[in-house]
Design goal:
five-stranded mixed beta sheet; 237 residues; 27% helix; elongated; four-stranded antiparallel beta sheet; alpha+beta; 2 domains
Length: 237
Amino acid sequence: MIKEAFQYIVNLGTPDIHEVNGQQYATQPMHLLKEATPSPIQLRSLSGLIEYLKSDFDKDLFPQRMIHVVSPTEVVAFSSFNNDYKRNEYIEVNAMIPAFQFDRWYDAEDFNIKLQSTFVKNDDRDIMLKVVGNIKEENVKTVGDDGVSQAVSAKVGVATVATVQVPNPVLLKPYRTFVEVDQPESDFIFRMQNGPRCALFEADGGAWKLQAMQNVKKHLETALQTEIESGQVFVIA
């Protein structure tokens, strides 16, 4: 059976090529034998990418390297295209960042912890911590809301409770890109519900993503200045 199948394949021979109305057709299906490409190395930090490029490892195979900042959390290194017009993507870098879900309601304790662990310290973050950390739970239902601003009952002293204005909008710097670069600062809408529960909503239309990508690009350009000047490395975002 195997011998008969092999003989059948041999008898098929090379497909004939015919031209019809200016287009070429083959008498048999043909499949491209693709040139091999390397499996990309998976990294989690920009420093790992920089160390790899400075080591000149694989330089003989890839004398020129392009670095593409794909998104705030992804960077890819690749060479020029091969004979199949396919590029060799040999490095993929994906950022490890702490988890915080925007547009989701957290209870006050969880929100307080998230503010301290997933946001860079700045003035508005500290103000929010004071409000959230001193809310009088039994009085949270007395919330005055004009559609934009909110007010809650919170401790303002050792034994004093007063109506405190909830800051809104707030300018914050959550960890949203590689930790090696400066985190972009942007506006958020801070809202509260009975419970008490707190949530943050992005309010910059996604402009932070472009800023984060530029921050990553500048970081790489500074670290790889020698390689860039010699024409070995190019960085795009």
